[in-house]
Design goal:
It is a single chain. The protein contains 29 helices and no strands. Helix 22 runs antiparallel to helix 23. The longest helix has 29 residues. It is elongated and about 90 Å long. The termini are far apart.
């Protein structure tokens, strides 16, 4: 039966994501994959990209998989999607195994649910696999960081539990080593893995048994892996913090790393108040997955005493209290399903805590952040289903099977539909603009993709809308300036380029673009000043250096032009234009 169940899970995953393989690179895929040189040459970081070095890239394992994709298929998007799907399939299978393993623990040995252990595991994994909210972690290529970290966390936990249950010492030690290595790899994939050791402790004391001292010793190596992430954050942001032991012994390591990990101006309290509301939205998406959105326009809440925050807190508190009550009930009455429910809910909150607590992150809400926490959520939901079947007896089993089958079919259809939206960049951003009409970023991204398709008027409209919504949107000004320049509206182009550098004084591209217009007009002094400003901000800016070199030739300042083209070759040794210009100048 397990083979049949595993085959069903894998087949269903492939079916619901069968229309995702042509979905193009989106949004953060560009900065994290396409424009990342290490993806094309992982060897350039062979010394610093290791699992244990504090100076290593914090997401080394994920980067390595992207580099492997590039090695095998270049930037062919299908290879990236196939890898993401494999990760998703394995995660769903690991969840199936986790549920079956829970029923094999000492706490559950005498419990055989009427619904069936195998069916409980099967439907838990299937609902997880087909839920449309998971598209943001599977179809969105760069969010492999999330799905892969989740898989590695599950592998680590499964290996630990197998170690605790096996009678073979040799096999047990092997499984234990796999558990620790997988935990380290998860920490080097995404920071959400920080919570894995806490979940392992939860599992140990909820479902396993043994002498307290031994149990603590078993858990200690896993708990120590929690230091990897804060040490890495400090080591990479503090130039002289290279000694891992010194960093680890620093009493303020967690607080310091939290401050460094924060990448928004929002205060911790504001972020926490907002996340209370976001968590309620997450619950809504898990129960009713409609209105999925790549880029939410979410209100930031500044006070706990706002009605939305207080009501959200009460909802979250009631769910959390229900988990604590069920844990108490399971301890007092040996109620198996109450403990399973408690474990699932506590997993959800623990797994979500890294991104939905007091560490301000750029975006307050993202659907892919539900991937790891949803493992616990679906375990909790299935415990309720199994409990209802136990209470109502055999007639309820068929009702539950029918209802779950209908839900899985409905979710699968919604996932296929959502993947259709992801399959086209313009369609995705048009969908996002409809759902977040008052947010500048979706309008900007839609304008960018309209421009790529040659829909200049539509692109101009979207950039102008983005600027109206966010008057300091430097990129929108710059792209609008490119449009005006291509239309011969040079005065208008210069005006918006100036606004771009006013909004972002470090915007090298805008300086270069402004320089090309002055260059075209014969205003050489102004052009040279802008080219030099761009180069000062970005010394390896090849286009700006080439433009300056050509301008110097026109100004008959040949010796200075030679120096500039030589500078180009220092950054790009095989640049043909620079080589040819140098030969002509000698």
């Amino acid at each position: 039966m397990p083979i049949v169940h595993l085959s069903i899970i894998a087949a269903v995953c492939v079916i619901v994501y069968s229309n995702s393989f042509k979905a193009p690179f989106m949004y953060d895929d560009y900065t994290n994959i396409i424009e990342k040189s290490v993806i094309r040459d992982i060897g350039q970081y062979k010394d610093s990209y290791t699992l244990i070095s504090p100076k290593a890239n914090r997401r080394f394992v994920g980067v390595l998989t992207f580099a492997l994709n590039y090695k095998l298929n270049g930037m062919d998007v299908r290879g990236f999607h196939v890898f993401n799907l494999i990760v998703h399939v394995l995660t769903a299978l690991a969840l199936y195994r986790l549920v079956t393993l829970i029923f094999q623990t000492p706490f559950f040995t005498a419990f055989d649910p009427l619904f069936g252990r195998g069916l409980t595991a099967l439907f838990t994994a299937l609902v997880f696999a087909v839920h449309p909210v998971q598209t943001s972690a599977v179809t969105y290529i760069v969010q492999r960081y999330t799905s892969l970290a989740t898989l590695l966390c599950l592998v680590s936990l499964l290996s630990y539990v197998h170690f605790r249950l096996t009678a073979s010492r040799a096999l047990g030690y092997t499984l234990y080593a796999v558990s620790v290595v997988s935990a380290v790899a998860a920490m080097r994939t995404k920071e959400i893995a920080f919570t894995l050791p806490v979940i392992a402790v939860l599992f140990e004391f909820m479902f396993l048994e043994g002498k307290l001292k031994k149990r603590i010793l078993y858990l200690l190596p896993l708990m120590l892996t929690m230091l990897i992430i804060p040490i890495s954050i400090l080591a990479n942001k503090t130039p002289d913090a290279t000694d891992a032991l010194t960093i680890a012994l620093n009493p303020g390591i967690i607080d310091s790393s939290v401050k460094m990990a924060s990448i928004t101006d929002m205060t911790r309290s504001e972020y926490l108040f907002t996340e209370l509301r976001v968590i309620v939205t997450y619950f809504r998406l898990l129960f009713v997955p409609v209105g999925l959105n790549l880029d939410y326009d979410y209100t930031v809440f500044r006070s706990f005493f706002q009605l939305e925050v207080v009501s959200s807190f009460l909802v979250i508190a009631s769910i959390f209290v229900s988990a604590i009550y069920m844990l108490y009930r399971s301890l007092a009455l040996n109620h198996h399903l109450a403990r399973l429910y408690s474990f699932g809910i506590l997993w959800f909150f623990i797994a979500l805590s890294v991104e939905s607590s007091v560490i301000p992150i750029k975006d307050v809400i993202n659907e892919y952040r539900l991937y790891y926490p949803s493992v616990g959520f679906f375990i909790a939901v299935m415990s309720v289903v199994v409990w209802l079947v136990e209470k109502k007896k055999r007639r309820a089993k068929m009702t539950a099977l029918t209802a779950l089958s209908v839900i899985i079919i409905l979710f699968a259809a919604l996932t296929l539909m959502r993947n259709n939206v992801w399959s086209d960049r313009v369609a995705l951003w048009e969908d996002t603009v409809r759902k977040s009409p008052n947010k500048a970023r979706p309008h900007y991204n839609l304008g960018y993709d309209y421009l790529r398709q040659g829909r200049v008027a539509d692109a101009s409209r979207e950039f102008q809308t983005a600027i109206l919504l966010k008057p300091d949107f430097a990129d929108a000004y710059n792209n609008l300036g490119d449009i005006y320049a291509s239309q011969g509206r040079l005065d208008a182009a210069i005006d918006v380029f100036k606004k771009a550098v006013e909004a972002d004084p470090f915007f090298a591209v805008a300086y270069n673009n402004m320089g090309t217009i002055y260059d075209e007009r014969g205003q050489f002094d102004e052009a040279a000043a802008d080219y030099r400003a761009a180069i000062k901000l970005k010394p390896d800016y090849i286009d700006a250096r080439l433009n300056l070199g050509n301008l110097l030739i026109k100004a008959n300042r040949r010796s200075e032009a030679v120096i500039e083209f030589q500078n180009v070759l220092e950054f790009a040794p095989y640049n043909e234009e620079a080589s040819n210009k140098l030969r002509s100048l000698q």
